[in-house]
Design a protein that fits this description.
homodimer; DNA-binding; binds manganese (II) ion; about 30% helix; Arc Repressor Mutant, subunit A; binds zinc ion
Amino acid sequence: MGVIRITKSVKALLNAFAEQEVALSTVALVEQFQDHMNRSTVYRILERLEDEGILHSFTGSDGLTWYALGNKNLLSGKANLDTHPHFQCKDCGKTECLPMSVSIPDVSKHTVESVSLLLVGQCSDCASV
Amino acid sequence: MGVIRITKSVKALLNAFAEQEVALSTVALVEQFQDHMNRSTVYRILERLEDEGILHSFTGSDGLTWYALGNKNLLSGKANLDTHPHFQCKDCGKTECLPMSVSIPDVSKHTVESVSLLLVGQCSDCASV
DNA sequence: AATTTATTGCAACTTTGTCGCATTAACAAA
DNA sequence: TTTGTTAATGCGACAAAGTTGCAATAAATT
Ligand SMILES: [Mn+2]
Ligand SMILES: [Mn+2]
Ligand SMILES: [Zn+2]
Ligand SMILES: [Zn+2]
């Protein structure tokens, strides 16, 4: 793990995650910071922060890459959050980590190295409309 | 569900799925048929066949869309195969449906409408090398 | 065979993401 | 504080996956 410099752009991105506890998509972040940093900078910082274990990523139902605060910080202490499911609301798009473990189906013939579980539905806010 | 015409291209694509019992990615299919049909035709036929329930799709670890024979045909009779997991071999890329049901974690605050579970690892062929 | 319209080819376009390279700015050492 | 090192950034060009409008074509029906 190489040195990581806490640049203005890194601070800005980390701040975006600190405010909300939800996941943020690359597209949303690129748009949010389009006046403050270059698109490739956003992608590169996200990648770097994931390498450091500060963020983790997954693919949403839209095929986009989503990021959220990761193992080292917010979720530390809780069990086995390396592989946790994610929930995405099809109405408002809100996407979040689910703080629970995933039960892996038995596939004896294969070696399973990673699991990704995505639940899509309606969040509580959108359900109560 | 509109009328579906069994064109040469539709037959060719269905044939590709009939031969093998694995899932096929859009990219692989576009390449396989690049001399016989246009790229947009491939995408449009796949979409149409999925609407008809003949194929179903999911997103691979590569972010690509993968298709496999669906509910109405091959897998009919088996339990609840509407939501089944998929396995993708990180070595050879072979990707397949897992004929088992997915246990959905309890997210009482949300309404879950669909589940996608992807296992990534090493298939039996690649493990025995 | 004629008619209807679903399907296709084509080309242009969009979106997401990557890459090389010159410039800039963290950060540590002096 | 100044200087030196090099990680990080901006920029523009590029790539890959997928979409779209429209004219031409070919299934299916009569
Ligand atoms: Mn997460
Ligand atoms: Mn499947
Ligand atoms: Zn919602
Ligand atoms: Zn394999």
